[in-house]
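Hi V.,

You were right to ask for the full record rather than a summary. Here it is.
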Amino acid sequence: MNHYLKIIMLLLLVTLFLNISCSNPVQPEMDDGVITGYDLRECACCGGLMINFLNETESYKGEFYLISNIPADLGISDTAKFPLFVRVSWKKDSISYINNKVTISKIEFR
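Predicted structure:
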């Protein structure tokens, strides 16, 4: 009987391991956004791309955020035509002293 108990325990452990290793990873939550273009203001905390999450297509209108990422890292070329409609996984940039700066971890173009 002891031999059977060991086999059953081994089978349970293998089943548990397979269930854990084969499960889908949790997908990050994504929000719809509009990248309206480059921030062309001339100030120390300006520059980069601008994004908003309220479907505003004009730059500097409403509540917008500056994107910390380099455009090329997001798949955005210098010749991109704005506005760009996207879905993004993002978070506020905790390193920056600027309140409206975000970092994008995943982007999909809509």
